[in-house]
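Hi R.,

Here are the chain sequences for the assembly we discussed:
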Amino acid sequence: MTALLETRDLAKTYDTGGTPVAALIGVDLTVRRGEFVAVMGPSGCGKSTLLNLVAGLDRPSAGEVWFDGRRIDQLSETALAKLRRRRIGFVFQFFNLLPTLSAEANVELPLLLTGTHRREARRQARGLLTDLGIGDKGRSAPSRLSGGQQQRVALARALANQPDLVVGDEPTGGLDSATAGEVLGLLRDAHGRGQTLLLATHDARVAAAADRVVSLRDGRVFDDRTLDAARPVSLPFDPEPL
Amino acid sequence: MFSTLVRLAFSGIRTRLVASGLTVLLAATAAATVVLALEVGQAGREPWQQTFAAAHGAHVLANVPTEKAARALQSHRGVVEAAAPVPDMTVNLQTGDGPEPLRISGLSGRPQVNAPVRIAGTATPGNGIVLEHSLATALNVGVGDRLTFAGDVGLRVVGTAVLPNVARYPRSNPGVAWVDRSTFDTLRPHGDRESWTVALRLADPAAAPKVAGSILAHQPPGSSSTQTWQEQRSLALMDAQPLQLILAMYTVVLLAVVFAVVAILVGARALEQYRQIGLLKAVGLTPRQVDLVFVIESTVLGLVAAVLGFTAGALLAPVLARPSSETMIGSPTRAADPVHLVVAAVLVLLVLVLSTWLSTRRRTRFSVLHAIESGRAAPPRPSALARLVAVLPLGVSLAVGARTLLAGRARALLLAGAISLTGAAFVFALSMQASLDAQPAGQVSDVPTELPVLVYTLDGVLLLIAITSLLAIALLGLRERLRDFGVLKTVGLTPRQVASTLVSPYAMLAVVASVLSIPVGIALYIATYRAAGGDGDPTLAPWPWLVLVPVATVLLVIVATSVPARMAARASVADVLRTE
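And here is the predicted structure of the full complex:
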């Protein structure tokens, strides 16, 4: 498999009230095309920061981010936006749907941005929502959907343009156990269709479903191991309970 | 409990100084126009009183057809002092623009009652002529200039003077001048409509209307006229009337804009403080008490605004009353009537309290649990307009922005109303200018020169208020939607597209509102024209001028919203979503 994503000596320092706080220190990470990578670690270890940097949502303090052979950390905001809309889908822990748009309209948005005709975008959005089991909720406002339903809409939005990379920041974190299981199943389906997944999680089941688990501690890669599908997961720390 | 609510209200004011300042600015401007409208009529009273005293003014002036009839009135019941009857006639003055009729009085020495009060030169005509001061100003004539009357009678201007019964030229038309009796006799063959005026002073000045009525009752019907001192004062102060009318019109517009903007600001605050309101309710405040906190805030701000507005209005009124003083001695004075403060305060508070109460009463009735858990109010169901926009083939930025703007139906309507009224004020000003421009060249307008200046100044103030309010509302929108902007960037909107989601819906709203402002402005102008006693069809601004209103409005809206739009475009997604 070729590398889809690569970070080289990646670092991020936040300035909190005049005091510099290192969130990420010298992270070298390679994610191959079609791989499912889970990023784990305790709260504050830099998982979200890493995801934000690789998705071009934030700028590193030092180091490089390469996506499909192209360095992206120095791209303009406009170029990054164009890259994200076609090639990177992002799923948040708390869904982050646009509250004034219906579920359908939320899913249509990335399609319309890539120039898909309005009618075709509507058709595809409905198809995606149906595939994710909420075809009947297309016209509902996000506030009228349950947490699990909102996360499905968010997932549909992230998958709409069939991006090469789907980045998820605790995508099952805000859900109950049963719903989290369902969302994980949907993510695995996407992976099964060849999409690359990079998910930050505390959920042992997500980690167990991944090809590889990268563990962070204090902003550094503490452990990076490929999982054997035939053997139970053994993590280098105790995952937080669901 | 009430003291707790007051403490909460003051804490709300302190933590939102910009919004509080904007509310005070808006309400103070409205209060200032209320006070100006009331004070401007009173500011000329003192100078008129001085002029009346200096002229030894008449309590009743009677104009009768013959000298005999005039002399008979000197001994009318109630009269304690009378001047010798003075003959008047209309004579044409030859000017470069053609004949100008003047009403000339023939004096035999200085009249005992109602004597012209000198402004420049002398008030005694001798062999020359004394012109009423505002007439001399309008004709651009001064002491020493020579005038030629019908029959080629030439007279040198020896002075200018004023009288308490003569209003400013050209509202008092024909203009007034004084000559001595021999000159009057020289002009008599070229004169017209000769009559006699007798100035009377009464034992009881308050009885002037009654005495005037009695005089007319003893004269042949239609042959005579009278003027009481009360009528003289009203006539002299009438220059303030157009100003009062315009100020009243702008007061209504400003109060409507204040209503709209305050409703938006308070409504946005109630939404933003969703969780805090939930917590207040959780500790035992009723929804009505929460409403009361907002109402107390608005009342405090309204009281501050009323005092500021009263101060500004009382200080500016003498400046606006200057046109009246052209026919008087002394300068307009400050009336600073406390009743005017009360009137302004009542009006401003009524608007603020109503606007606040209407915008908060529905936003404080929600589930406490939801407020505390979610911290954000659920967006309202999409309005019919939002649903319509959803099916229109709009670009992504405009579609997303418009649906968000229209989701707050009340806010969109209030904002459109405020923009429309501001545009209407400009349509009004343009029509007034067109009307002034349509006057034939050389014809002196009876519109006080201060009137257009006042209208343009008020338009400027309104514009400033509209832009500031729009900026504040757009900044509020930015704060409310910061997370959404982060999400939009995440799904692939470029910074320019993000900015466009904020600017384009406001621009779209401005197009609709400013097009509506044209008929609203025309209606306002026609109503004011009719109220001012204008007859015939008023001259309206030509269409090319009117088209400028929507164009300029949209441009201004784009400029005002571009500041928060740039902030939205530059916001770091990671920061925004991390804060959430």
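Confidence is low (pLDDT under 50) at residues 237-242 of chain A. Chain A is about 35% helix and 30% strand.

Let me know if anything looks off.

Best,
T.
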